[in-house]
Amino acid sequence: MDTILIVDDNQAVCSALSLMLELNGFKTLTCFSPEEALGLVAEQEIALVIQDMNFTQDTTSGEEGKRLFYDIRACQPQLPIILLTAWTQLELAVELVKEGAADYMGKPWDDDKLLNSVNNLISLHALSRQNSQLARSEHQRMSAIKDADLCGIVFGSGAMQRCIDLALQIAKSDVSVLITGPNGAGKDKLADILHANSPLKHKPFIKVNIGALPMELLEAELFGAEAGAFTGANKARIGRFEAADGGTLFLDEIGNLPLSGQVKLLRVLQTGEFERLGSHQTRKVKVRVISATNADLAEDIASGRFREDLFYRLNVIELALPPLNQRQDDILPLVNHFIGQDFSLSKPTQQALVSYPWPGNVRELENACKRAVILAASPMLTMADFGLKPVNGLKPVSGLNPVSGAPSTSSVSAPSPVASQQAQEQRQKPRFAEQEVETDRAPTVDSASRGEPTGADIELALAEHNGVIARVAKSLGLSRQALYRRMEKFGIEK
User: Fold this and answer.
1) 8-state DSSP, 444
2) CB distance 372 to 381 below 8 Å
3) Disulfide check for 101: which of 96, 170, 202, 350 has CB 3.0–4.6 Å away?
4) Could you state, in order of their start, the residue ranges of all structural domains in the chain?
5) Do domains 3-127 and 158-322 have the same CATH topology?
6) Compositional bias of type Basic and acidic residues: which residue ranges (predicted)?
7) Residue 335: other Cβ atoms inside 10 A
């Protein structure tokens, strides 16, 4: 409940205002002198002040109220103040309103008008305080990021910002962190940030991709092995845990760890103790473990593929990294980073890049940018360089992934029955049938995978290449003669 301070030397005025405000859900405090008012403002949480302008009998100048107003302003600059007076002086009213007085009313007042002013001012004051708090928080956050080592990560989305903020917050502790998210989304970058901003940043940082290690050598890689422990082990070797002693160990694709390895890992996390393969000597290390997975570990636990007790040891804090299609504001900053300063993007290309779902996430985007830079005919990269079609009905060219050429797993809009039939017929043709039959097509890299351009495609390409027929034809995989015939067919003028 908001508290309103009423300052007036007339007790009847104080009582009338208190009654009206309390009937409308406010708490009130009353006092009869400027000195009392300043004491209450300093001690109490006041939402608004209603003050008289004259406190001494036979005084009508308003100077007392003016002094009180400035004194309150000095200690509470944002506190809304409504001035009440039976002796209206326009010049003084204008002066104080310019100095920040919220409202100026004469006595007797209109209850509805005063209540409306009180409600509006308290709401505005609450919003102002909230904005100030947010601004302070944002300033603190930006200061923390400015001083942090972000390991070269590029982002522009609020979702990624929240992930980084949380990573910086938990980096200072030594608890285990589980990073979840799809392949290629940047989980390893978050692990880099966690270590680089931790007290262990000058200690070893060892990365292990569990999925890339042979199952038969996994335990030896993690915990080490003595000479003769297995075929080919001619000498003793330390494992990754010993190598990371005193620092950080990043276990990527932790969901691929077999159950036998999970038991040993659980023991290390609990006690720091383990034995090398082929040894009975117990060794002890102190390691912070960061793990990452694209698997649904809850489902793996239910099916018996992952230990529940290990999950809770690894997942003290979870960093959930969204896929790239859920943080579209990251796409263009990443593209500009990958293509460098020698290349730029046309507006239609930017729209196509943002609209494409990128099932392979940042890794797929990076490969698409490498492809575009290699195939680019000019410093202005086009949709054709990336293997993308216009935004309306956007999908990879001929239904193929723009980077790998594999069938696309998603599209923005479902194809029409005619398009589906055409696509099926196209798939039944030999891979290079289009070049063999369509002799008027220019033999470009994409010509085998590009479908028949529509009128909209041609118009967009003309706009993108400023009407230069040679460039338009090349971008569409056509000869100039074939392009002219299609322009005539669709009624497109150059």
Assistant:
1) -
2) yes
3) 96
4) 3-127, 158-322, 328-425, 429-494
5) yes
6) 426-443
7) 23
Closest CA relative to residue 194, chosen from 285, 286, 269, 290: 290
Q: Compute the distance between CA of residue 368 and CA of residue 274 in angstroms, rounded to an integer.
A: 44
CA distances from 176 to 172, 263, 284, 321 (A): 12, 17, 18, 16
Considering only CA atoms, which of 216, 284, 221, 298 is closest in space to residue 252?
221
Q: Where are the alpha helices (DSSP H) in 359-428?
A: 361-375, 383-386, 417-428
Distance in angstroms (rounded) separating the CA atoms of residues 291 and 269: 12
Q: Find tokens 């008027």 and name the residue.
A: 440
- The alpha carbon torsion through 353, 354, 356, 360 (nearest 10 deg) reads 90
pTM, 2 dp: 0.58
Residue 70 near residue 37, CB atoms below 8 Å: no
- Please tell me the total number of residues recorded for the chain in this structure: 494
CATH class of 3-127: alpha beta
Structure tokens, 148: 């942090």
Tell me the C-alpha distance between 118 and 124, whole Å.
10
For residue 473 the two structure tokens come to 């034809």
Q: 3-state DSSP call for residue 87?
A: coil
Confidence of residue 449 (pLDDT cuts 50, 70, 90): very low
Predicted confidence (pLDDT) at residue 430 exceeds the cutoff of 80: no
The token duo for 353 is 């890049």
Report whether 180 contacts 319 (CB < 8 A).
yes
Rounded to whole angstroms, the Cα distance separating 7 from 50 reads 6
SS3 state of residue 169: helix
State which H helix or E strand residue 221 sits in.
Answer: helix 218-223
Q: Are strands 177-180 and 288-293 parallel, antiparallel or unpaired?
A: parallel
Query: The CATH number of 158-322 is which of 3.10.450.50, 3.90.190.20, 1.10.540.10, 3.40.50.300?
Result: 3.40.50.300
Whether 174 contacts 206, CB under 8 Å: no
Q: What percent of the chain has pLDDT over 90?
A: 41
- What confidence category does residue 29 fall into, taking pLDDT thresholds of 50, 70 and 90? very high
Identify the band that residue 405 occupies on the pLDDT scale cut at 50, 70 and 90.
Answer: very low
Burial class (CB within 10 angstroms; exposed 0-12, middle 13-18, buried 19+) of 437: exposed
Question: Which residues, other chains included, contact 308 with Cβ-Cβ below 8 Å and sequence gap of 6+?
Answer: 301
Contact status, residue 66 vs residue 96, Cβ threshold 8 Å: yes
Average confidence score pLDDT of the chain? 81
The CATH code of the domain at 429-494 is: 1.10.10
- Tell me which CATH code domain 328-425 carries: 1.10.8.60
